[in-house]
Amino acid sequence: MNPWRLIEDGPGEGDANMARDHALLLAADAGRVAPTLRLYGWRRPTVSLGHFQDPARAVDAGRCQAMAVPVVRRPTGGRALLHHHEITYSLAVPLPHPLFTDGLRETYAAVARALLAAVRALGVEEAQAAAESRGGLRSPACFATLNHGEISVGGRKLLASAQRRLKRAFLQHGSLPLEKPGELSYSLFLYENEAARSAAGERLQNSTTALAEVAGCPVPPARVSAAFRQGFADALGVVFEPAGWTAWERETARRLQEEGEDPAPLPRRGAGPRCP
What's the angle, vertex CA 43, arms to CA 40 and CA 45, rounded to 5? Predict the structure, then answer.
């Protein structure tokens, strides 16, 4: 099997991160690149919206502005998510591919095996992949639900993922919080009133966790990235080769970032309302 690309970007601004993930998907769909695992972080707290999510019904714009928290849009669907102290992975694979032959659900399951291997390599042996989606809280926040293939510990969500499928490629990306963001994780979203906000926040805190909490101590980002690399390599049986962005990807990402919104929104197909 030919080597897969590995891109490690470090922390970045939210609009650049999402533009790069989108450009990676488009490059894979065009057959321009090998399967690629990208690992990155976030320079400051940032809210990402699902591709089809209405910001007027999800995000408290006044609070975000007052707290200098940018709001960006993902190339995948689902609910709003606060990113900050986390490692985010994205996997883009041209299709057809022998490791991903059975459609959306099976692809989630294959990637979940890699995610489990990564989390368990960090000492969290009790981590599990959800066999099916579980109804969650009435909330605009992504971590309010546990979806098929996402990773939990003791019934609390640890790692959220989302997938977008085009005709000739898929992109799956997801967030592993290194520590719990506290009140910020829900206070930036819209609720009917303050009582509903407070109740949703309490339930969200009780239904989610973070790596430092389940590992029993803070885990350095470099160690987390190494676990992702090893987990994907072992579970999928692939070899990674460190690489940079192609000129086509850099230009596409630059254009997407400058335009702010997708110039031609991705069709509503494939993964549907899934979230990272």
Answer: 110
- Residue with tokens 């022998």, as numbered in its chain: 98
What mean pLDDT comes out for the span 161-165? 92
In angstroms, what is the C-alpha Rg of the chain?
Answer: 17
Give the model's pLDDT for residue 135. Answer: 52
For tokens 């980002």, the residue is 221
Which residues partner with 208 through β-bridges?
157
* CATH (residue range 4-259): 3.30.930.10
- The residues assigned a catalytic role are 142
Q: Does residue 18 surpass a pLDDT of 60?
A: yes
Placement of tokens 């990807």 in the chain: 249
What is the separation, in whole angstroms, between the first and last Cα of the chain?
A: 29
37: Cβ contacts below 8 Å, ≥ 6 apart: 4, 5, 6, 7, 89, 90, 91, 228, 229, 232, 240
Could you give the 3-state DSSP secondary structure of residue 223?
Answer: helix
Here the tokens at position 151 are 């990773």
Give yes or no for a contact between 245 and 7, defined as CB atoms under 8 angstroms apart.
yes
Domain boundaries, the chain: 4-259
E-strand stretches of 95-190:
128-129, 151-153, 156-165, 169-177
> pLDDT (tens digit, 9 = 90+) per residue, 69-86?
999 999 998 888 999 999
- Identify which has the larger pLDDT, 41 or 137: 41
Distance of alpha carbon 269 from alpha carbon 273, whole angstroms: 10
Give how far the C-alpha of residue 33 lies from the chain's centroid of Cα atoms, to the nearest Å: 21
